[in-house]
Amino acid sequence: MGLFDFFSKEKKESLDKGLEKSKTGIFDKLTKAIVGKSEVDEEVLDELEEILISSDVGVDTTVKIIRRIEARVARDKYTSTSELDRILREEVAALLQENNSQDVTNSFETQNLPKPYVLMVVGVNGVGKTTTIGKLAHNFSKNGKKVVLGAADTFRAAAVDQLKLWGQRVGVEVIDHGMNTDPSSVAYDAVKKGVEVGADVIIIDTAGRLHTKVNLMNELGKIKRVMQKVLPEAPHEVMLVLDGSTGQNAVIQAREFTRVTDVNSLAITKLDGTAKGGVVIGISDEFKIPVKYIGVGEKMEDLQVFNKMAFVESLFQK
């Protein structure tokens, strides 16, 4: 069984429910835009452009989607407004396939994964970073994987305490040195412990934000270097957690973090509480970094592996 297979069992209902606010917002506006119209014309496309931008898809990505639909309408000569949701779904899915062709599969083959697999998690405070780590730890351990957590966000007492609570809750070991200690020494000890106990996964929490980008870059760089003293290839993955409910602020955060560290996966949280679900499409398109997980609810199982086709189907299906 692959390391991440447990996410693939998530029910579609959970995804549909989590995206309900976004879906309702899009379709209420779309219905109003096409009322009394039988074919997709320039006016309908202008309305659609506004709808996508207001759903936080982002201007550049929206323009790409509209151009694709325009080309298709021109090619087909006549396109009924009743087909618009299907065409929109198909073109968004095609854009995501092309622009982020490295899709995140629901599993890594365990024999091809290094053991322990070191995952460093970054993101500003308040985005659900520590909760995401807790949910990941729960799902890994539930599926028989040995997990060690490292509480390296030592600038915030709440972060250390919160991670320790998650550790107790899901029954995994947490390495911490308390608050105002050196984050890199926590990361070092967590990796060392993970190696000693034969952990499958080591997840390192890091500070949400330091005073300047230079400080943040230096801190994350130091954490990496210190971990590499134990495991030369660590971290195997740097995951940026973003709060989907903040819409374009999440995009700005992604720009900031990708400038200061090598982010190679994304987790987008809190999609169930917002109508800004379109932000996932914009982020996926702009950064070409795989969106690996999305949070669509409070439950442990509501952290799902991001499947582009399932997401688009759910978001744009009436």
From TrEMBL:
<dbReference type="InterPro" id="IPR042101">
    <property type="entry name" value="SRP54_N_sf"/>
</dbReference>
<dbReference type="GO" id="GO:0005886">
    <property type="term" value="C:plasma membrane"/>
</dbReference>
<comment type="similarity">
    <text>Belongs to the GTP-binding SRP family. FtsY subfamily.</text>
</comment>
<dbReference type="InterPro" id="IPR027417">
    <property type="entry name" value="P-loop_NTPase"/>
</dbReference>
<dbReference type="InterPro" id="IPR036225">
    <property type="entry name" value="SRP/SRP_N"/>
</dbReference>
<keyword id="KW-0963">Cytoplasm</keyword>
<dbReference type="InterPro" id="IPR004390">
    <property type="entry name" value="SR_rcpt_FtsY"/>
</dbReference>
<protein>
    <recommendedName>
        <fullName>Signal recognition particle receptor FtsY</fullName>
        <ecNumber>3.6.5.4</ecNumber>
    </recommendedName>
</protein>
<keyword id="KW-1003">Cell membrane</keyword>
<feature type="binding site">
    <location>
        <begin position="205"/>
        <end position="209"/>
    </location>
    <ligand>
        <name>GTP</name>
    </ligand>
</feature>
<dbReference type="InterPro" id="IPR000897">
    <property type="entry name" value="SRP54_GTPase_dom"/>
</dbReference>
<keyword id="KW-0342">GTP-binding</keyword>
<dbReference type="InterPro" id="IPR013822">
    <property type="entry name" value="Signal_recog_particl_SRP54_hlx"/>
</dbReference>
<feature type="binding site">
    <location>
        <begin position="123"/>
        <end position="130"/>
    </location>
    <ligand>
        <name>GTP</name>
    </ligand>
</feature>
<dbReference type="GO" id="GO:0006614">
    <property type="term" value="P:SRP-dependent cotranslational protein targeting to membrane"/>
</dbReference>
<dbReference type="Pfam" id="PF00448">
    <property type="entry name" value="SRP54"/>
</dbReference>
<feature type="binding site">
    <location>
        <begin position="269"/>
        <end position="272"/>
    </location>
    <ligand>
        <name>GTP</name>
    </ligand>
</feature>
<dbReference type="GO" id="GO:0005737">
    <property type="term" value="C:cytoplasm"/>
</dbReference>
<keyword id="KW-0547">Nucleotide-binding</keyword>
<keyword id="KW-0997">Cell inner membrane</keyword>
<dbReference type="GO" id="GO:0005047">
    <property type="term" value="F:signal recognition particle binding"/>
</dbReference>
<comment type="function">
    <text>Involved in targeting and insertion of nascent membrane proteins into the cytoplasmic membrane. Acts as a receptor for the complex formed by the signal recognition particle (SRP) and the ribosome-nascent chain (RNC).</text>
</comment>
<dbReference type="GO" id="GO:0003924">
    <property type="term" value="F:GTPase activity"/>
</dbReference>
<dbReference type="Pfam" id="PF02881">
    <property type="entry name" value="SRP54_N"/>
</dbReference>
<dbReference type="InterPro" id="IPR003593">
    <property type="entry name" value="AAA+_ATPase"/>
</dbReference>
<keyword id="KW-0675">Receptor</keyword>
<feature type="domain" description="SRP54-type proteins GTP-binding">
    <location>
        <begin position="290"/>
        <end position="303"/>
    </location>
</feature>
<dbReference type="GO" id="GO:0005525">
    <property type="term" value="F:GTP binding"/>
</dbReference>
<comment type="subunit">
    <text>Part of the signal recognition particle protein translocation system, which is composed of SRP and FtsY.</text>
</comment>
<keyword id="KW-0472">Membrane</keyword>
<keyword id="KW-0378">Hydrolase</keyword>
